[in-house]
Amino acid sequence: MYMSQLYSPTLRETPSEAEIISHKLMLRAGLLRRSAAGVYAFLPLGLRVIRKVEQIIREEMNAIDGQEVLLPIIQPSELWEESGRWSDYGDEMFRLRDRQGRQFCLGPTHEEIITALVRSEVRSYRQLPLRLYQIQNKYRDEMRPRFGLMRGREFIMKDMYSFDRDNEGLDESYWAAYHAYKRIFERCGVDAHPVEADSGAIGGDVTHEFMVLAESGEDLVLFCAECAYAANAERAEGVREPGGTENKAALGALETVPTPGASTIEQISAFLGVQPQDCIKTLLYVADGTPVAALVRGDHNLNEIKLRKLLNCETLDLADDETIFEVTGARVGFAGPVGLTIPLYADYAIEHMQNAVVGANSDDQHCVNANLDRDFQVTAFADLRITQPGDPCPRCSGTLQGARGIEVGQVFKLGTKYSSAMGATFLEENGAETPLIMGCYGIGVGRTVAAVIEKNYDEDGIIWPLSIAPYQVIVVPVSMKDQAQAEAAQRLYDELMAEGVEVVLDDRNERPGVKFKDADLIGFPIRVTIGSKSLDKGEMEITLRRTKKKISVPLEDIVPTIKGLIKDGETL
Ligand SMILES: [Zn+2]
Q1: How many A from CA of 393 to the centre of ligand 1?
Q2: 155 or 315, higher pLDDT
Q3: What pLDDT score was predicted for residue 569?
Q4: CA 223 / ligand 1 centre spacing (Å)
Q5: Which segments of 45-190 are extended strands (E)?
Q6: From the CA of 241, how far away is ligand 1's center (Å)?
Q7: Phi, psi dihedrals of residue 390, rounded to the nearest 5°
Q8: What burial class does residue 248 get, using C-beta atoms within 10 Å of its C-beta: 0-12 exposed, 13-18 middle, 19+ buried?
Q9: What's the pLDDT tens digit per position in 365-417?
Q10: What angle is formed at CA 337 by the lines to CA 332 and CA 343, rounded to 5 degrees?
Q11: Strands (E), 428-480
Q12: How far apart are CA 143 and CA 240, in angstroms?
């Protein structure tokens, strides 16, 4: 490719729409352009990178017996009614009607489509296991699309679905995908750590997310420095510490005190001169129509996912003002466990609290010296809080540390969630009709590219790992007006092309500084500079993008040297 013809409009200035480095660099290097919020057009260089990542994914999926399919983007509502997700999915789903008024969505994910596809064809255990995957656009109407390819409304995903006859088979599929994912991210040149995660709206139990640790990450990852435990903070387990409240003698007398206008933990602790960890937050929810209360320590936050799992409910919503008044007799901000008659679920940390400050269930009043057992009882203790850095490790005696992470992939065990709901069954050897056991496995292709950039850049631009660079080499004659340089550059370009090297020749009549800046910004791993002085000495100069190392190479060795560098690509 000649640089003069390449459609790669580079920008000197960072567009104001970009907040994080990968987004800025992808716009500046001319890899993509925004069409609408969270919707992007890929330009030639951007698409080449995407295609390379896809190819790596394809090879690794094929290696674990995945078979590639291409499922429709437009999906009929009937299938989503069958799984129960047409109403559950909410505003994130792009919905549309055809001219007959039938309802469809733009697929946010493909469990329904694939389950329907397989149920009509798979009849016997002999047809299992089956692993089908696709690389396809997904559509989610995100509330806040942002960060370029990190959180878009249209994005490219690889999704694989496994169908097995039993849980042992599912285990095999799950771990095959898990290990394939490790290879995929390694080959893309980025460290992605598998961490325990929550399964969210997709359903199922066991799941791992693959996280690239980076400041710009939207997720908080907690990991233990002493053992291998790592989890998304939204899923990380809280620890039930042994012992209860030790010193019963020190219990103060329960007392109601006025706290006018102080309804948040910050306001109350400031008003009463206590610490947030001396207060109990009482949060009122309505679970499947029934009011319940959840208690967490004042400096902790409730994890709704954990509460929802504990209650095993279909719907869980924060109680509205009216319900709060009915249940407590007070405005929002003054609920407390003393005297409440609805079920109370308390986080483990509540077990160890003494002389706590709690809402008095009366406007502008709190109770001090509230004590468990004496003043209030709880229905059950459970792990209900959002685990945070500094908390004890649930696996060993270590302490959890926090880091920001970008989720680039996820593997789930779905079990029979979709196959049962949608009647996808097969006949066992003994003739029994059994639901298929499913797993699903996703990789965000664009997000992986963004994550690679987040980990591979410097002040001059992108530093592509050789494996996914849009082109491996750029040849830069210092002056195209110098005939010897222009001819040497063309000759080298032709030779590299003949050797199958992916190369760009910067044939523009630009100053060398402009050419070098573009080469660095786009991030070609290998640059060959051709100047008069080196040509006179019978040499060309190779510059490695990552290390900026320069090597002078005799003309006759230049092609073998470049080929050698590409072969040992890991070290670039
Ligand atoms: Zn540990």
Answers
A1: 5
A2: 155
A3: 75
A4: 8
A5: 67-68, 74-76, 94-97, 103-106, 130-139, 154-164
A6: 15
A7: 100, -15
A8: exposed
A9: 999 999 999 999 999 999 999 999 999 998 999 999 999 999 999 999 999 99
A10: 100
A11: 433-435, 437-444, 457-458, 461-462, 473-477
A12: 36
482 touches 195 (CB < 8 A): no
CA dist., res. 210 & res. 364, Å (int): 47
pLDDT(182) > 90: yes
- Tokens standing for 340? 């409440």
Across 278-299, average pLDDT: 96
What is the rounded distance in angstroms from the CA atom of residue 67 to the CA atom of residue 4?
Answer: 40
Ligand 1 center–CA 152 separation, angstroms = 35
Average pLDDT score over residue span 453-477: 97
Give the containing element (helix H, strand E) for 221. strand 219-224
Q: Name the average pLDDT for the chain.
A: 94
The token pair that represents 386 in the structure block:
């959002």
Q: How far is the CA of 402 from the centre of ligand 1 (A)?
A: 13
Nearest to 194 by CA among 400, 386, 409, 451: 409
pLDDT tens readout for residues 23-62: 999 999 999 999 999 999 999 999 999 999 999 999 999 9
Q: What confidence tens digit (pLDDT) does each residue in 195-241 have?
A: 988 765 445 566 899 999 999 999 999 999 899 899 999 888 888 88
Q: How far is the CA of 230 from the centre of ligand 1 (A)?
A: 8
How many angstroms separate the alpha carbon of residue 188 from the centre of ligand 1? 29
Grouping H, G, I as helix, E, B as strand and the rest as coil, residue 477 is strand
Label each residue of 242-260 as H, E or C. CCCCCCHHHCCCCEEEECC
Residue 569: partners with Cβ closer than 8 Å, 6 or more residues away: 465, 466, 467, 525
Please count the CA atoms within 13 angstroms of the CA of 263 that sit on its side-chain side: 12
Q: Which domains does the chain have, with CATH numbers?
A: 21-236+402-453 (3.30.930.10), 248-382 (3.90.960.10), 471-571 (3.40.50.800)
Q: Where are the alpha helices (DSSP H) in 77-232?
A: 77-83, 85-88, 111-119, 167-187
CA of 381 to the centre of ligand 1 (A): 23
pLDDT tens-digit readout, 408-445: 999 999 999 999 999 999 999 999 999 999 999 999 99
Beta bridge partners of residue 473, listed in sequence order = 503, 526
Distance CA 521, CA 8 (A): 11
